[in-house]
Design a protein that fits this description.
Rossmann fold; alpha/beta; 18% strand
């Protein structure tokens, strides 16, 4: 069992996210938050800043949230790290799921943010590592897909600072639904 939250399909307030996180901890269930991510040109309406989502998921007693970011693309990781660090978060970056275990071993993260495309059913990684240490129910997992953000214009926009990252509609390309099912299986098998 797990709690699956989709702030794109059904917008939720920060207070609502905090309440869901508390309820998931009280029930001993993992909290999985799915989020799209994309670039927002300056003239387009932007979705919420991912930092607001992560702040809402961080325990109230934590003054400097420790975020573990698992992202293989350097340009996207750099942009996300800059954005989160500007919001007062400590960000540890791992390019692979196995590297994320090494980073987490240095200190438990408050939140794990990872590209959904890195989730594979038969690979040991951060989800299994957290579960083995009884931390999976205390550490929200925020997953996104960066499908469709690999255009040259998007990458150049990240490098120049012209493109800001916001929660946006999720991609329906590839095997996104299957990856979410795989991740749910890794967290405990069902949805609450």
């Amino acid at each position: 069992m797990g709690v699956l939250v989709d702030p794109i399909a059904a917008p939720i307030t920060r207070r609502g996210l905090r309440a869901l996180r508390g309820a998931a901890i009280d029930a001993g269930l993992p909290l999985l938050v799915t989020a799209g991510i994309g670039g927002a040109p300056s003239d387009a309406p932007a979705g919420p800043d991912p930092a607001l989502l992560l702040q809402a998921l961080t325990p109230a007693a934590v003054s400097l949230p420790r975020v573990l970011l698992v992202e293989a693309r350097d340009d996207l990781a750099e942009a996300m790290m800059r954005s989160l660090e500007r919001q007062g978060m400590q960000v540890l970056h791992a390019a692979t799921d196995s590297e994320s275990v090494s980073r987490a071993a240095d200190g438990f993260p408050d939140v794990v943010v990872m590209d959904l495309m890195q989730v594979r059913r038969r690979r040991v990684g951060i989800v299994e590592w957290l579960r083995d240490r009884d931390r999976l129910t205390m550490t929200p997992l925020v997953v996104y897909t960066a499908l469709g953000t690999d255009t040259p214009q998007f990458g150049e926009g990240l490098r120049t600072g012209d493109t800001a990252l916001y929660l946006a509609e999720r991609s329906t390309e590839g095997d996104v639904g299957g990856r979410i099912v795989d991740l749910l299986a890794k967290t405990g098998g069902g949805i609450a």
